[in-house]
Design a protein that fits this description.
12 strands, 8-stranded parallel β-barrel, about 40% helix, TIM Barrel
């Protein structure tokens, strides 16, 4: 299992939200560029960047983020405000390693089918498209976690799999930003339902003990944000874990 450090951007600042609530924001005195350099200089080559403005249809961050991403040779998993197939193509062609699609896949009934037809003939398509599932008490949330979907969680997973998408980024909103431990129960349910999905866990990771738990249930990777900023997990620990994981493959 691989640890992916997270950088959430709101109004061009590095932040963390609590339970996805834009009214509960913690800002950090560090820039996106500084965080990328910090990770890269410590041997980490994969980062997770979310445009929180874009997630609620405010694209004022987007050009800034694209400019920063183009300058780095880090592998970037990117999400927030991706509303069209053209944007997915643009990001992949620009070198973004993985593009996260969320709200549009839920609100537009044909988006995933159209995306599958448009992209999935290309090399590594489904490896580069990540389906975001943000979950609060097994209800799928979207639009920056402000809206609820009537689609049942497992039905949505089955729909995605049928269209060729197999990598999912699942955020347990109940756990997010609290440093209270990862949503092990939710991830176990998903993996019991579909053992062959590639699951990226997100939300609540507070220590290396949480990382150990996630590794035991065979998630592919996990996203870690606040635990790094609050000094619960060091970048050196992430580096050592990832190196050991790569050596064991």
């Amino acid at each position: 299992m691989y640890i992916i450090p997270a950088i959430d951007i709101l109004n061009k600042k590095v932040v963390r939200l609590r339970e996805g609530d834009y009214q509960q924001v913690t800002e950090y005195e560090v820039t996106l560029e500084e965080m990328i350099e910090r990770y890269q200089s410590n041997g980490t080559n994969f980062i997770h960047i979310i445009d929180l403005n874009g997630a609620k249809n405010d694209f004022s961050n987007q050009q800034y983020l694209f400019d920063v991403i183009r300058k780095t040779d880090m592998q970037v998993q990117y999400g927030g405000g991706i509303r069209s197939i053209e944007k997915v193509k643009e990001l992949i062609d620009a070198g973004v390693h993985r593009v996260i699609v969320g709200t549009q896949a839920i609100t537009n009934p044909t988006f995933l089918e159209d995306l599958s037809k448009a992209i999935c003939g290309r090399d590594k398509c489904c490896d580069q498209v990540v389906i975001a599932i943000d979950v609060l008490d097994e209800v799928i949330k979207y639009s920056g976690w402000m809206e609820s979907s009537p689609i049942k969680l497992m039905d949505y997973v089955d729909k995605c799999l049928a269209l060729g998408f197999y990598r999912f980024l699942c955020t347990d909103i109940n756990k997010d930003g609290k440093l209270g431990g990862a949503g092990i129960e939710l991830y176990e349910k998903l993996l019991d339902h579909s053992p062959f999905i590639k699951l990226i866990a997100s939300g609540g990771v507070s220590s290396m003990a949480d990382i150990e738990q996630l590794s035991k249930i065979k998630v592919e990777s996990c996203v870690v944000g606040k635990a790094i900023y609050e000094n619960h997990i060091s970048i050196e620990e992430i580096k050592n874990w990832n190196l050991e994981s790569l050596m064991s493959i």
